[in-house]
Amino acid sequence: MLGLTLRYELWDDHIKVNSATPGTTATAIFATGGVAAPDYAQTPMQSAARILTGVQLNQRLICGDDNDVEGSQNALSPDPAIQKGLDDYFLEVARDRKQGKFRF
């Protein structure tokens, strides 16, 4: 949200701000966590190309892969059922990661 609001704070100063997420990208961070990158992970070059294209098009929110596009469609939903589902899911993922368990 910070990046999204900052975009409009700086717009009249001709400073462009884009918010980007890299998507599931096969980087060394997976090895740090002791797991292999999932089969559907993209290369860092693929992620960078998608992000740079979004910057060139001055997109407000740049999603690094199709999974991020799908996730973003519900991320800010006001629907209480969707909010609860997302809160429950992400809380479970965060707790798993704190215990060293990674899942995809």
Topology diagram in text:
Elements: H1 2-10, E1 19-21, H2 29-32, H3 44-56, E2 61-63, H4 66-75, H5 80-98
Textual characterization of the structure:
This protein is mainly α and 104 residues long. It has one domain. Helices cover 53% and strands 6% of the residues. The protein has helices spanning 2-10, 29-32, 44-56, 66-75, 80-98; strands spanning 19-21, 61-63. It has a two-stranded parallel ribbon with strand order 1-2. The model has no long low-confidence stretch (mean pLDDT 89).
Overall tally of domains: 1
**How many individual β-strands?**
2
What would you report as the Rg, rounded to the nearest angstrom?
Answer: 16 Å
The biggest beta sheet is recorded as: 2 strands, parallel
Shape: globular
Q: Order of strands across the widest beta sheet?
A: 1-2
What is the element string, with H for helices and E for strands?
Answer: HEHHEHH
Low-pLDDT residue intervals, each spanning 5 or more residues? none
Query: Percent of residues in helical segments?
Result: 40-55%
Q: What portion of the residues fall into strands of 2 or more residues? A: 5-15%
Structure classification: mainly alpha
Number of helices: 5
Global mean pLDDT: 89
Task: Give the termini distance in whole angstroms.
Answer: 25 Å
